UniProtKB/TrEMBL annotation, chain A:
This is Histidine-containing phosphotransfer protein. The lineage of its organism: Eukaryota, Viridiplantae, Streptophyta, Embryophyta, Tracheophyta. It comes from Linum trigynum. CDD domains: HPT. Histidine-containing phosphotransfer domain (HPt) contains an active histidine that mediates the phosphotransfer. One of its GO terms (molecular function) is histidine phosphotransfer kinase activity. SUPFAM superfamilies: Histidine-containing phosphotransfer domain, HPT domain. Pfam families: Hpt.
Automatic annotation (TrEMBL), chain B:
The keyword ATP-binding applies. This is Ethylene receptor. The chain crosses the membrane at residues 20-41, 53-71, 83-109. Its cofactor is Cu cation. Belongs to the ethylene receptor family. Homodimer; disulfide-linked. Cu cation binds at residues 65, 69. It comes from Linum trigynum. Residues 349-588 form the Histidine kinase domain. It is a multi-pass membrane protein. ADP binds at residues 469-472, 516, 532, 547, 551.
Length: 156, 735
């Protein structure tokens, strides 16, 4: 595949991510922050997000699976963190799932919380997959000597 | 004559006389001897008699006298010389003693006399004391009766019981035949028989109040004797021939209002009741003074007791009323709170959940528009876009209005280019206007400042609304928009008498007039123009895509900006002019330039925005922190990231210019406060800005309270961050 093809694919893929709501304008902002002096900003932030989220999700699973009563305060705190991180990088669907999760936490509804946790995990893995695809595409473009065409994302 | 011892004295011829003398002397001697015995007996018995010595003397005198007479017996016959000597001695002694006694008697007779007078005096005194005792006893009795009566009267707060008890007790104490109480009627012109002692159910008998006898009683505070034939006293058929004496006394009916501080009840006009007391008929009893006093005292006590009862009734009534009102208010408050809570919950949901899908729809529809579409598809997409725009506007309008009504809406003040606002509005309206073939002209006065301080978005919204209305309601012709600085004279408008604009050095009043040649306004509709949701009939038939909220919202925005908005029209079909005036601040320095929305071209120059600005970012979420840090680095700042309050307080110093704090952290506000405490001088202290995910009033208030300089909504875009930093550095405040 040549560079232009790859670049077009990248643009289409990114647009689709936005369209399908995986990412929102915040992610675009992150992409804007990336420049020559900070070429891997987005990848770094997203990697940090992955680490953080996986840790939080494990914690959440542990806390909710408790037999002797769920500590909703802790759950809420973790979900809050996850919501914060996901909204910082623009992982919209994850963030929305977190919002729903928080409302169940307020009601102290274990059933609902469990459902939401699954939802959040699902969304998280989806977006992780998508982003990893995106990054590998970017790596390929750079390896092929091209540059990632972020200027073409001008509809937001 | 000398008598010799040898010659026997011859019995004188009057022997009989001598014999009688002899016998008399004997008896005298006897008597004389027995009296001392009696005296001794007397002295023995009377220990209190003060003149014992006199008695003894007297006794001696009598004894000696007796002795003399006794010895005399022997002198009737021839007697020896011894007898004569004894006789003489006795006589001498007697003489001495009797003289002594006589002298003594002279001394003691005045004493004895005074004893007598003293005795008389004491007797009189005793009689007097007796009398006084009698009086005191009666007074005591009276006092006791009064106390008992008072006690009875005061032991209840029920008016009826008080009065009944008074009559009963008085009747009992004074043994009255009849006792009655006359109360003034509501009109105050008559006295009505209210209570009587003997008759169980008074007939409801009335008597006019201005009778002379009644006036006489009312004019004095003493009990007054009245004639048994007066109308107030003729209560029952005469039991006997001679009716008993009747006394009447006034009972003041006191009201709360009678008690002025400097004006005792005597001076104010008031109502009296009349108490009439009748002694039993056919008895010789008369009214004694103490009985009258008793009656007066009782009347006063009754007055006081009645007023107490009245006050108590009043206060109980008031208290019940207050309780009812309290309960009702509480209920209303709770209902209002529930309603507000429900409304807030609803708004919170709307705010987030409804806007997101709306934006998604709008964004995606616009995206779709840019792809290759068939004409029908394009039409469809355009319709979708229009409808969703409308819906988005509607949602925003409703949300804005609720917040406006709440009073929770606050203007986002900032510096902006005034002319740009107008140009933007014209650009937005031009497509629609051109479709309708309306000519749109803009005229900005030359003295209009280039930059102003105010809420740019809301001003634009207002302007857009007004101009949009002008376009909407004009089928043809032109729309002309003029804007100029309002001068002092033109500031007052006859249609807005409450509007008192006060120009000052830092502010000016912007006056905007939008004139259209459209359908005009019916004068009848004028009051409803600015009412929410109200649209006049003729307009509703057209495709007026609004909710009727537009002008209402504009009005509120304009009021928030200390201004006024009104419409003028000469009638239907004669066009309409919308005029509004708002207060804007004059921008001090005009270096503030509105940055173009798309800054992607300027990406590489962004590094020079804020060179060397030392910033600390405090956020416990690693990803957030990294993003914010990246943002600030991109803008050229020298950023340090910290993840805890302690670390932040350790690192913060006066060299740092700005501190961003994620206030969702548990110690976010605390850190802000401690920073202020640590670095107290304003020019040394770094500016503190809160980063938060919710922008509600409570958060803003809390930030203001701890002294933060600004609040920023997460997540932050580059432009937003840039404008935040510029505003902050220029004005030192964002809130």
């Amino acid at each position: 595949m040549d560079v232009i093809q790859m670049q077009r694919t990248w643009v289409e893929y990114t647009k689709s991510l936005y369209r399908e709501g995986f990412l929102d304008s915040q992610f675009a902002q992150l992409q804007l922050l990336q420049d020559e002096s900070n070429p891997d900003f987005v990848v770094e932030v997203v990697s940090l997000f992955f680490e953080d989220s996986e840790r939080l999700l494990n914690e959440l699973t542990k806390v909710i699976d408790q037999q002797q009563g769920v500590d909703f305060k802790k759950v809420d705190a973790h979900v809050h963190q996850l919501k914060g991180s996901s909204s910082s990088i623009g992982a919209q669907r994850v963030k929305n799932a977190c919002v729903a999760f928080r409302s169940f936490c307020d009601e102290q509804n274990i059933e609902g919380s469990l459902r939401c946790l699954h939802q959040v995990k699902q969304e998280y893995f989806l977006v992780k997959n998508k982003l990893e695809n995106l990054f590998s595409l970017e790596r390929k473009i750079v390896a092929a000597g091209g540059s990632v065409p972020t200027e073409e994302l001008n509809f937001l | 004559m000398e008598s010799c011892n040898c010659i026997e004295p011859q019995l004188p011829p009057d022997e009989l006389l001598s014999k009688y003398q002899y016998i008399s002397d004997f008896f005298i001697a006897l008597a004389y001897f027995s009296i001392p015995l009696e005296l001794i007996y007397f002295v023995k018995k009377s220990a209190v008699f003060p003149y014992r010595w006199v008695l003894v003397q007297f006794g001696a005198f009598i004894v000696l006298c007796g002795a003399t007479h006794l010895i005399n017996l022997w002198t009737f016959t021839i007697h020896s010389r011894n007898v004569a000597i004894v006789m003489t001695t006795a006589k001498i002694l007697t003489a001495v003693v009797s003289c002594a006694t006589a002298l003594m008697l002279v001394h003691i007779i005045p004493d004895l006399l005074s004893v007598k007078t003293r005795e008389l005096f004491l007797k009189n005194k005793a009689a007097e004391l007796d009398r006084e005792m009698g009086l005191i006893r009666t007074q005591e009795e009276t006092g006791r009766h009064v106390r008992m009566l008072t006690h009875e009267i005061r032991s209840t707060l029920d008016r009826h019981t008080i009065l009944k008890t008074t009559l009963v007790e008085l009747g009992r104490t004074l043994s009255l035949e009849e006792c009655a109480l006359w109360m003034p009627t509501r009109t105050g012109l008559e006295l009505q028989l209210a209570y009587t002692l003997r008759q169980q159910n008074p007939v409801g008998y009335t008597v006019p109040i201005h009778l002379p006898v009644i006036n006489q009683v009312f004019s004095s505070n003493r009990a007054v004797k009245i004639s048994p034939n007066s109308p107030v006293a003729r209560l029952r058929p005469l039991a006997g021939k001679y009716p008993g004496e009747v006394v009447a006394v006034r009972v003041p009916l006191l009201h709360l209002s009678n008690f002025q501080i400097n004006d005792w009840p005597e001076l104010s006009t008031k109502r009296y009741a009349l108490m009439v007391l009748m002694l039993p008929s056919d008895s010789a009893r008369q009214w004694h003074t103490y009985e009258l006093e008793l009656v007066e005292v009782v009347a006063d006590q009754v007055a006081v007791a009645l007023s107490h009862a009245a006050i108590l009734e009043e206060s109980m009534r008031a208290r019940d009323l207050l309780m009812e009102q309290n309960v009702a208010l509480d209920l209303a408050r709770r209902e209002a709170e529930t309603a507000i809570r429900a409304r807030n919950d609803f708004l919170a949901v709307m705010n987030h959940e409804m806007r997101t899908p709306m934006h998604a729809i709008i964004a995606l529809s616009s995206l779709l528009q840019e792809t290759e579409l068939t004409p029908e598809q394009r039409l469809m997409v355009e319709t979708i876009l229009k409808s969703s725009n409308l819906l988005a506007t509607l949602i925003n309008d409703v949300l804005d209005l609720s917040r406006l009504e709440d009073g929770s809406l606050q203007l986002d003040l900032g510096s902006f280019n005034l002319a740009a606002v107008f140009r933007e509005v014209i650009n937005l309206i031009r497509p629609i206007a051109s479709v309708k073939k309306l000519l749109v002209t803009l005229h900005l006065a030359p003295d209009l400042p280039e930059y102003a301080i105010g809420d740019e978005n809301r001003l634009m919204q207002t302007l857009l609304n007004v101009v949009g209305n002008a376009v909407k309601f004009s089928k043809e012709g032109s729309i002309s928009i003029t804007a100029f600085v309002a001068k002092a004279e033109s500031l007052r408008d006859p249609r807005a008498p409450d509007f008192f604009p006060v120009p000052s050095d830092n502010h000016f009043y912007l006056r905007v007039q939008v004139k259209d040649t459209g359908s005009g306004i019916n004068p009848q509709d004028y009051p409803k123009l600015f009412t929410k949701f109200a649209q006049s009939q003729s307009l509703a038939t057209k495709n007026s895509g609004g909710s009727g909220l537009g002008l209402a919202i504009c009005k509120r925005f304009v009021h928030l900006m200390d201004g006024h908005i009104w419409l003028e029209s000469e009638g239907l079909g004669k066009g309409c002019t919308a005029i509004f005036m708002v207060k804007l601040g004059i921008a001090e320095c005009c270096t503030e330039s509105k940055l173009p929305a798309a800054t992607k071209a300027g990406m590489n120059h962004a590094r020079t925005d804020f060179p060397g600005l030392k910033v600390i970012v405090m956020d416990d979420n690693g990803v957030s922190r990294m993003v914010t840090k990246g943002l600030l680095v991109h803008l050229g700042c020298d950023v340090t990231g910290v993840s805890s309050g302690d670390e932040c307080l350790r690192l913060i110093s006066q060299d740092h210019h700005v501190l961003f704090i994620d206030v969702c952290m548990h110690d976010g506000y605390e850190v802000a406060r401690r920073v202020h405490e640590k670095l107290t001088k304003r020019h040394e202290r770094p500016l503190t800005v809160a980063l938060t995910a919710n922008s509600d009033k409570a958060t803003k208030d809390q930030c203001r309270r701890v002294g933060m300089n600004g609040v920023v909504l997460k997540p932050v875009s580059i432009d937003k961050m840039r404008s935040v930093l510029s505003d902050l550095l220029e004005h030192r405040i964002l809130l």
